[in-house]
Amino acid sequence: MAKGLTAGELRLEDEETLVQKLKEAKEELFNLRFQAATGQLESHGRLRAVRREIARIYTVMRERELGIVTVEKETSDG
C-alpha cells in the first residue's frame, strides 16, 4: 500500500478502490502486529501510520455515506 495517503487523495477514489485499500491496510496492520509480537518489527512508527490510514479510509467512506462529501466527477466545461 502506498505510504502517506491523504484524505484528499482518498476522496478522489471510487468506492471499490477504497474497499481494496482498506483491505490491504488491514492486512498490513495484521502483519505488523504479528511482527511486533514476535520481536521482528523494525519500524514501530509504521504501526501508527497504518492505523491512521485505516481511519482516513473509514472517514472518507462515512462522509460519503452521510452525504457530507460526494465523489467529484471530472467534467469539462466548454
UniProtKB/TrEMBL annotation:
Keywords annotated in UniProt: Ribonucleoprotein, Ribosomal protein
A Pfam family per the record: Ribosomal_L29
Any single Gene Ontology cellular-component annotation: ribosome
Entry-linked Gene3D superfamilies: 1.10.287.310
PROSITE patterns referenced in this protein's UniProt entry, alphabetically: RIBOSOMAL_L29
Transmembrane regions listed in the UniProt entry: none
InterPro entries from the UniProt entry: Ribosomal_protein_uL29, Ribosomal_uL29, Ribosomal_uL29_CS, Ribosomal_uL29_sf
CDD domains per the UniProt record, alphabetical: Ribosomal_L29_HIP
Superkingdom to which the source organism belongs: Bacteria
HAMAP family, A to Z: Ribosomal_uL29
UniProt record similarity statement: Belongs to the universal ribosomal protein uL29 family.
Name used for this protein in its record: Large ribosomal subunit protein uL29
